[in-house]
Design brief:
Largest sheet: 5 strands, mixed
Number of strands: 17
Oligomer: single chain
Number of domains: 2
CATH superfamily of the largest domain: YVTN repeat-like/Quinoprotein amine dehydrogenase
Structural class: mainly beta
Order of helices and strands: EEEEEEEHEEEEEEEEEE
Radius of gyration: 21 Å
């Protein structure tokens, strides 16, 4: 690559790991709080995957401001979901930024870096779906019935994401976080719940639906 400049990656901060995938040769690809995908070999991080809007072979080309492409993490914010989609042979990730991304499994599996120069490896997603700016993806389950994902939104929703239309459907709404108070009506089939999210909801527990919701502040 012409006009190429490398820099040693900064020390990786201590991070919770919410999810991981074990590769066939024993290496592990894991999430991180910073939004980076990390490739582990034994007890050590072998590679930190970085991305940008550039193609992989252009990501370390210097610009007039001497910046280096490729310092961008896989996601903006923590990654909560990491799994191997065997149908597309991709590593699928999702997290706090409300996006679902597909990464080439083979490219991750064979990634090699010169650790004396850098531990960053350039990688771009093969597909990206933005589920919503106000969505925090905490969990994903592929639907057994059709080509879609069932998504748990940490902000209090259960979503269905058809992979062909990329338009999410809200299946259910609920509290975002713990429920700290509940009271049942003595004269009708309703119950009121209050959550740490500041919402108060009235539930019809016969029809299993929310009759109304009010937000506090």
């Amino acid at each position: 690559m012409a006009n190429t400049r490398f820099a040693r990656a900064p020390q990786i901060d201590l991070s919770d790991i919410y999810d991981f995938v074990e590769l066939p040769d024993g290496k592990v690809i894991s999430s991180s709080e910073s939004g980076h995908l990390l490739l582990w070999e034994g007890n050590f991080v072998k590679t930190r995957f970085v991305t940008s809007d550039q193609k992989p072979d252009e990501m370390y080309t210097t610009t007039l401001t001497n910046d280096i492409f490729g310092t961008v993490p896989a996601h903006e914010g923590g990654i909560y979901v990491t799994f191997h989609d065997r149908l597309t042979d991709s590593i699928v990730t999702a997290g706090a930024d409300g996006t679902v991304k597909w990464w080439d499994f083979k490219a991750i599996d064979v990634a090699e870096v010169d650790s004396d120069i850098t531990m960053d490896y350039p990688l771009v997603p093969t597909r990206t779906i933005n589920v919503g700016a106000d969505v925090m993806i905490k969990s994903i389950v592929p639907s057994p019935d059709d080509n879609s994902y069932i998504i748990v939104d940490g902000n209090g929703k259960l979503l269905k994401l058809p992979l062909d239309s990329e338009t999410p459907e809200t299946l259910w709404t609920f509290h975002a976080g713990p429920i700290v108070g509940i009271a049942a009506s003595p004269i009708d089939h309703y119950a009121v719940t209050a959550g740490v999210d500041g919402n108060v909801s009235v539930w019809d527990y016969v029809s299993k639906e929310i009759s109304s919701t009010a937000a506090n502040g």
